[in-house]
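Batch 3, record 17
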Amino acid sequence: MTAHHPRLLLAGVLILVLLPWVVGSEFLISFAIIVLYSATLGQSWNILGGYAGQFSFGSVLFFGTGAYTSSILHVTYGINPWIGLVAGILMGMLVGAFVGFLSFRFGLRGSYFALITLAFAEAFRIISNSVEFTQAGMGIYIPLDQHPLNFQFEGRTGFYYVILVFFVISVAIALRLERTRFGSRLMAVRENEDAAEALGVDTFGHKMKAIMISGGIGAAGGTFYAQYYLYIDPYIAYGVDKSVEMLLVSIIGGMGTVLGPFIGSLVLHTINEISRHYIDTPGLSLIVYGVILVLIIGFLPDGLIGLFKRKPKGDDAQG
Amino acid sequence: MFEPVILTTALINGLMFGAIYSLLALGLTLIYGVLHIINFAHGALLMLAMYAVFFLFSKWGVDPYLALVVVIPGSFAFGYLLYRHVIGKLAKGKDQNILLVTLGLSVVFENAALFFFKADTQTLNLSYAYDMIEIGPALVTLPKMISFGASIVIGLALWALMAKTDLGKAIRAVAKERVGARLMGIDVDHIFAMSYGIGIACLGAAACLLMPSFYVTPTIGHVFVVIAFTTVVLGGMGSFVGALVGGFIIGITESIGGLFLGESLGQIGVPLIFVLILLFRPTGLFGAKA
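Prediction for the assembled complex:
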């Protein structure tokens, strides 16, 4: 198991809290925002895929639902985005419960679960692209009105602290999973669902909780996106690309680990920035990233975080 | 309600397009039936084949139907090598690994296409693209008619290959019992790669038949990947008849859905069928077992 050093984690959080005072550059703060945001979304996938072993190919469902919920409430009904954030999280959990109930009740596992989440995301994309409620293919523009009470900030620093809080909460949840019986049971489901069931684990209930937690975190990321970029449309909200990014950062960083999504996100966006700086052609960074993914699956099944883990000598079996 | 003529036209058009879906699904279902893997790179590989057809036409003026003789063997070779040297090597036989490796490959292919070919939508401008043929009360474009006929011919050829040749026999043996097949002296890794190659060759054929009436972009695979999976799951994973029938059902669903629900919402039929089939009959219409 991963050995966690609470002090190290705490020190890490402290560094992140002080970051805006240390680095003055607007560019670095934007970079940090993207890394933390992508890591938060990755953690949403990681809790369901990495800890509970349910590989979702449609986790964008939660992201899009959060983004649309707060945006529609805000633009159409004039409800404050902070309330929209809470509503979005609840809606994300609800969508998680809906998809989870259907899939798990009907016993879909492995690739079948991956496919059905993909199908649901497609269905949501098509619906949001067609109905008036989401302003169809036009997308929703969130009016600019910079005020902290409005979940809009003048500088980047405000957004930075918001996403830092989301990120820390998502990490804390993953950390809880590693230390509670609930988390252990989830991992038992991942390792061998039938055996877990035979030992009396309520596998259905545990998977449901996992997908709802995942849904809540993903939705928070979605609302953040909408408030940060002030725009959302069906392709951003429910397109395949974001689902893929969510699972990429987790798997590359190390799925089923607390910091895997963060490491994956840091690597992805570093590659992204470097390739954008030197060769400004879209696609290059993702080519590199895809190759890394394929190589990691082949040679480093624990992800990049596996590089840092001390391998216990010989007594792997007892560990 | 709609006039019968409009309805028949939609029905026939759906059937025509469905033939291409059948072809995509045949490749996918063959790969699934033999290797027991879900080839997530299916859409991206189709996209590459479509670009091959596009460049053959725009650079050397090769007619897309003539391109069949190049693109089918080319796709086969590409698929064979891809499986032999990348997928098989890296996935080490684990179901989820193969899913992720093929996903990783599709990310690489799509972005390589974006990098080299740019995001522009490319079409062939063929003189005969809009030639119409009368079928009963309906009018159908010539390319659709050809793709319908060709898909059925290719489907039959594939069936003959599987049923009548030694290679087909070996593939079926490996699909049923890989350890037993190995003991009988069949080179299982070779057969895996052959099956993957044949599956990708189907994509090559589909690409040639699609291009006269469709367009290509680096992300075009997304459009087809859900459709192909739906067709395969609907027909029953690993079932040939299922893939053929499934393709037609999906094609008709799309065109009828578009007629009743409009261009945008009409697409909902495919993911809806997908979800319902997965939930209520994951073995599909013709699937043998879960």
